[in-house]
Specification:
366 residues, alpha/beta, TIM Barrel, eight-stranded parallel sheet, 42% helix, globular
Length: 366
């Protein structure tokens, strides 16, 4: 995976690399996400028949060859001319769901035409009519889940983007939204991010639990609530009918200093499983960088993970083939980790015990 990061760095401009890799503020949460997964240690079992390890599962009702879905990431044509189409085809070939972003740079209808199993990620817009239109379009293309992002009432202070004065190139747009509403994302702002300015004008900071109730009454799609860290919030989402929750801090791009996802995950799992059993799955993202991370996440209680930045590394490095290779590597690494941990199937992975490796960083997590 790290090799693909270096390949992507060589082909992307500094501005684009920083847009992809950067976090909010001092990037403490960005760094903490990786550090927390690095400190997850599983206690392997032995003398199990691992001649054939089966990583297949069902995620939010969708069949998956791995306990992995591709996370929603905006404007993927920034990294390769085919953008979302290339990643969706790679996901289809790999047998994992692909999450279409509200801010995708290719219309959702064209992405669905690739044949990928699609989930649709929804940002809550100020215009509820536009929200409902997006949901109805997602239903029409056969999306199998609606992934509602709840951790962006306002965009985090992403200092790398602000220093670059980041703006979208004229050829890139949010293809699922009205063109006029997107014009501000192309206009450079001195000492600021044009994309952040657009978010401030388009997204609703007044978004609350009542809106989730309103949405639940208007769609039959399985609802996935993404962007939770607190067990009480996860319980509230499950009580409102969520089929899954995603423990996520937006890859460290929102609240700087937010708890790393590997640290928050066990508390959310305990709360949701204790009250709802398997009727509400718990997924996790933010910091997944390889097969051992997937093993650790499942051993901590997750049903699956969402893969974000590494999929974009593959896209930037080699288009559809590059992304497909990243997903293939992830599968190889995960099956290998299953075998070495003595786990022929995902039920055995869920039974693994975990502990925490000591931190040898002298107290400096930066």
């Amino acid at each position: 995976m790290a090799d693909f990061a270096e390949l992507a760095r060589t082909v992307l401009s500094v501005e684009l690399w920083d847009w992809l890799e950067g976090g909010a503020g001092r990037e403490r949460t960005l760094v903490g996400n990786r550090g927390a997964f690095d400190r997850v240690a599983v206690v392997p079992r032995v003398l199990a028949d691992v001649s054939s390890c089966d990583p297949a599962c069902s995620l939010v009702g969708s069949p998956a060859a791995l306990p992995v879905a591709v996370a929603p990431i905006a404007y993927q044509r920034l990294f390769h001319p085919e953008g979302e189409l290339a990643v969706a085809r790679a996901a289809a070939d790999s047998g994992v769901p692909y999450t279409v972003s509200t801010l995708s740079s290719v219309p959702m209808e064209e992405i669905a035409a690739t044949g990928a199993t699609t989930w649709f990620q929804l940002y809550w817009l100020r215009d509820k009519g536009a929200v409902l239109d997006l949901v109805q379009r997602a239903e029409a293309i056969g999306s199998e889940a609606l992934v509602l992002t709840v951790d962006v009432p306002v965009m985090g202070r992403r200092l790398r983007d602000m220093r670059h004065g980041f703006a979208l190139p004229p050829t890139i747009r949010a293809a699922n939204l009205d063109g006029g509403a997107m014009s501000s994302a192309h206009e450079r702002v001195e000492r600021g991010s044009a994309v952040a300015a657009h978010t401030a004008s388009a997204f609703a900071p007044s978004f609350t639990w009542y809106d989730i109730e309103w949405l639940r009454e208007r769609t039959g799609l399985p609802l996935v609530v993404k962007g939770l860290s607190h067990p009480a919030d996860a319980l509230r989402a499950a009580e409102l009918g969520a089929a899954a929750v995603v423990v996520s801090n937006h890859g460290g791009r929102q609240l700087d200093g937010a708890v790393p996802t590997a640290v928050a995950l066990p508390g959310v799992v305990e709360a949701v499983r204790g009250a709802f059993g398997e009727s509400c799955q718990v997924l996790v993202d933010s910091g997944i960088r390889g097969g051992s991370d997937v093993l650790g996440a499942l051993a901590l209680g997750a049903s699956g993970v969402l893969l974000g930045r590494p999929a974009m590394w593959g896209l930037a490095a080699g288009g559809e083939a590059g992304c497909a290779r990243v997903l293939s590597l992830l599968g190889e690494e995960f099956r290998h980790a299953m075998a070495l941990a003595g786990c022929p199937d995902l039920a055995a992975v869920a039974r693994l015990r975990t502990t925490t490796m000591p931190c040898h960083c002298g107290g400096d997590h930066q």
